[in-house]
Amino acid sequence: MSHREPASKKVALILAGGAARGAYEVGVVAYLLDEVSRALGRDVPLDILCGTSVGALNVAMLAAYADEPRERGQRLMEVWRGLRIGALVKSDLRGLLAGSRALLDASGLERLVADKIPFPRIGENLARGLLSAVTMSTTHVATGKTVVFVQRTEAAIPGDAAAPRRSLLPWSHEPTSEPRVATLTEHHALASAAIPILFRPVLIDGQYHCDGGLRQNVPFSPARRLGADGLLIVNPRHAQSALPEAAAPEEEPRPGPLLLFGKALNSLLLDRLDTDLSRLEGINRLLSAGTRRFGPNFVDAINQELGRTETPKIRPLTTLLVRASEDIGKMSVDFVRSPRFQGRVSRPLARVMRHLADAGGDSESDLLSYVLFDGEFASELIELGRRDAQSRHDELCTFFETMATHDARA
Q: CB–CB of 12/223 below 8 Å?
């Protein structure tokens, strides 16, 4: 087992939601743990792990095997490449009629999570100092509030259960987001990934929770509030260079229900990531200008004036975003229409998936890309993630080198 040198600054890995698109995140992370670590000559530090939806499932695996810093990327890839859509995506008509309000049966996914992720190891790795915090974001069904379940280093120390609660007090006053100290289990991860309508909500401590992406699809806010100095964000959402031009009214086909449902999911899981990152960059510029003008104590003076004596303080943050260079919705259509997919599934399932592919016309299928939990398709997304990370290799190395630089104010 290899070890990494402790960094002077805390690095947070933030994994967004996206259901089956989460295989893209695995490719980025695997490249990071393998190639970037090799280039740096040490294991990359990942002190805080934050995930929403499928990102929570990936984060759970990474946290459970934090004592295997490079091998855990291989473990994740093996799980995703071994997926069989017929075992994971099944209709739940009986449950729907009985009032569960879910189109898909989640039992296959539940068994996979329970079998592959040893959740008790998360607390063990926290206690060993291999991590400082792990978070999973959900949406509380009754109130619509984002609930961020947090397992921290202090939570693993017997007799000190009040410590993490005290440290989270400044965060607990937000009207739309609530942190809760927890010992993370498969229930938290499955709740975070329970996309409304597709999967049934999950009961945690007597309250129902569903997909955290409804309000917080890219959970970098918890990482910032937990003291991260650097944010590495992985998002499978494709960033289009420009919005497509609207077709003439007589040329635009009427959207069918499946297309509308896919677009609705995209809208529900749409995050204000670009806006929030732009705001962070503005704060960084302001703090940098203040330090140049008034000296190195400027940031501390601002926090004292605002009464911020504990985390979260206002401070400069280094951020790096890796996002999909290709439209995964379009990739899913091409894959389902290919002969290799038709030979992997039963005829009834093949017809259903082909219908989802055709619902979006020739260009894309948002809904299909969310439910396409197939190992072959996951392999394509993993390779896309690796290529995108490789194209950012120098930036990734610089990011971690910056995080290893000692901060004189620390």
A: yes
Tell me the pairing of strands 318-323 and 230-235: parallel
Tally of CB atoms within 10 A around 287 = 17
Question: What values do phi and psi take at 387, rounded to 5?
Answer: -65, -40
DSSP state of 158: T
Contact 188, 134 (CB under 8 A): no
**Rounded Cα gap, residues 113 and 277, in angstroms:** 32
| Higher pLDDT among residues 218 and 138, named by residue | 138
Q: pLDDT tens digits for 289-319?
A: 877 888 888 777 776 777 776 666 777 788 9
> What single-letter amino acid sits at 178?
E
DSSP 109: H
The predicted-structure confidence for 175-222, as pLDDT tens digits, reads as follows 778 899 999 999 999 999 988 878 889 999 999 999 888 777 778 888
Strand ranges inside 41-103, DSSP E: 48-52, 90-91
Can you tell me the distance from the alpha carbon of 289 to that of 295, in angstroms, rounded to the nearest whole number?
10
